[in-house]
Amino acid sequence: MRDGNSVVKDRRILIAGCGYVGGRLAELLTEAGATVFALRRSSGAAVSGAKAVRADLLDPQSLRELPQPLDGAVFSASPSAYDEEGYRSIFVHGLRNLIEALAGHERPPDRVIITSSTAVYGQSGGEWVDESSPTSPRRWNGRVLLEAESLLHESPLPGCALRLGGIYGPGRTRHIEQLRERSARLSPGAPHYTNRIHREDAARSLIHLLALDRVESVYLGVDNEAAAENDVLSFLAGELGLPTPPLAESAAPRRAGSKRCRNDRLVARGYRFVYPTYREGYRALLEGDEGC
């Protein structure tokens, strides 16, 4: 398997949405020698090493001046509001506008990748899930993301969707903060399985998919271990030198179902995780390697 960094060297990549994952992706691509174009609607903090492109995904006219040619594009935009209208605005209307703009290029990009989510799965009883599992989302966010995936798959552009699990890393340390504040509680009853990926692996897996000769339509972007949330909290308490959190009187309502996602397809295509499980990732945060 070729090294992804060597393959993307000298390639021209557009990133639509340089936020938590997209910003790190831009840094890594730049370090690898790619020319990165960061599409953003308004001025803000510069993305290190990237060339700023002022455009609005919801304004098709503004997308007519995108740089050409492009070798690849990554859609990792975030909604302006966490509601169905906000999701549909960016993931359906915004993505459709970008696809139409890129498809109209004299030489369209060879690869388009969109970041989706494990929310497209409705399983909630601890089932194992992979890319072939049924997608029956329990909530509107999963349904909108499935619609976004279909937009790409039905378009003339070649590409894939990376369904990311819960992203953690620098600045995203909710469990650590809860433990330090003594507000964390273990959940009673059956294990509630969670699926995670460190920001570094989310960004590097996107580079890996950009570099592959051929991709399948969907990949699961989760680390090597689906973990019960109680186990994660107990592990972190031990690492912090704190007592194991007490058991809650009743299980708290959750937005996400309990499922165990497999990353076999991504691993089979040669990706190797920087942080294979939550243990390595959280230890790096606590040791200061990633800025906790």
Structure commentary:
With 292 residues, this protein is an alpha/beta fold. It has one domain: Rossmann fold (3-Layer(aba) Sandwich), CATH 3.40.50.720. It is built from nine helices and 13 strands. Strands 3-2-1-4-5-7-11 form a seven-stranded parallel sheet, with helices on both faces. Strands 6-13 form a two-stranded parallel sheet. α3 links the parallel β4 and β5. α2 packs across α6, α3 runs parallel beside α4 and α5 crosses α7. The longest helix is centred in the N-terminal third of the chain and has 20 residues. It is globular, with a radius of gyration of 19 Å. The two termini are 33 Å apart.
Briefly summarize what is shown.
The chain has 292 residues and is α/β, with parallel strands linked by helices.
Helix-strand blueprint:
Blueprint: H1 4-8, E1 12-16, H2 20-31, E2 35-40, E3 51-54, E4 72-75, H3 84-103, E5 111-117, E6 127-129, H4 140-153, E7 159-164, E8 166-168, H5 174-180, E9 193-194, E10 196-198, H6 199-211, E11 218-221, E12 227-228, H7 229-240, E13 259-261, H8 264-268, H9 278-286
Helix pairs in contact: 2-6, 3-4, 5-7, 7-9
CATH domain class: Alpha Beta
Total discrete domains: 1
Helix content: 25-40%
From the N-terminal CA to the C-terminal CA, the straight-line distance is 33 Å
Assigned CATH architecture: 3-Layer(aba) Sandwich
Features:
single chain, 292 residues, alpha/beta, Rossmann fold, seven-stranded parallel sheet, two-stranded parallel sheet, 9 helices, 13 strands, 18% strand, globular
